[in-house]
Amino acid sequence: MRRVATGLLVLMAIVFVIARSFEERGTGLDFVTAFAEAAMVGALADWFAVTALFRHPLGIPIPHTAIIPTNKDRIADSMARFLRSNFLTPAVVARRMRAMNIARAAGDYLAAPVRGPATGVRAGAAELLANALESLDPDRLGDQVRHGLAAQLGKLEVSPLLGQMLAAAIADKRHLPLLEAIVRWAGKTLEANESLVRTMIHDRANALLRFTGLDERLANSVLDGLYRLLAEMLVDPDHPLRKKVEEGLDKLAHDLVHDPEMRAKVEGMKHEMLANPAVAGWWQGVWERLREGLIEAARNPDSQLGSQFTGALRELGQALSSDPRLQLQVNRFARRSAVGIANRYGDQIVRLVSETVKRWDATTITDRVESAVGRDLQFIRINGTLVGGLVGLTIHAVDVWVF
Predict the structure, then answer these.
(1) Is 403 helix (H, G, I), strand (E, B) or coil?
(2) Is the backbone of residue 26 left (phi > 0), alpha (psi -120 to 50) or beta?
(3) For a tag on the chain, would you pick the N or C end, based on fewer CB atoms within 10 A?
């Protein structure tokens, strides 16, 4: 654009020379001469004005030229004040944010297909999670998590909670499968240890029983009785022993909630368990395996966790896109956060702008401003050339036809 504007000035000079050469022959070229002459004046004047903004014209230190490099510090402060007064005010930020539906835009982005643009967000979030888990000291982080859990568990009275959970399970008959599993386990355990039971009975029998072989019959009777008892408990929901067990569970649930002595015992066991070094070592191993599993899963998009993470983000995006109430809450939070940032950190933000501009040297700020607005400034030179020519033509016409 600078070459175009300069070329137009050169063209006007050539037109002026040619028109001036043939003007005396009465060809009426005086109007062309007047146009070209005034156009050159306008072009030179606007060239001087545009150049004076960025540098000294022709290198001559004319006063009030090279305005931008000479006054860059004042310009930086003025820019900062302008931004603070007109953009980073709570009212302006709130009004602008009120017209934006950030939640829906984020939802549409996250709900995009797997091959869509949101894939980068999901991959970036997974990589960020993996890097964060790797960068943290595993032992220190594990200790912090363990101490945090221990502190929270120490404040929580678990006895009433356990009692309420047990009472709810009994009321919903959810304890029956566990009870039946215990009976089956007892039967398998008895079957696997028949020889041990027979040996115990044989050792405790007197010599007469062993001599007559009654100890073996006694062992068979005991085992058959136990097997029969377990089988009856398994098939008969109203078996007396099962009733006794259920009554015991009911009493345990009641005592866990209402018996101070039972509650004190449970709390004591809880604190002993939390203070046990073996529990700390067990938790450290669990945490390390969990951390390594999270890192591996986060970096493997085909893993179950990766698929779940991607699905969770997609579901979040769909919820943000389709739920007006959720959009209202998210947008309100975003608006309040932006207003709070503008109100609290507005001065620091504009100070950053001011200090950054002040650190630039004169050449840098001149080049950056000229690159940003220089094209439009060259249009000023072009318009000055054309307007100057039209003004000169008008003045010449008035001079010829009026005076």
Answers:
(1) coil
(2) left
(3) C
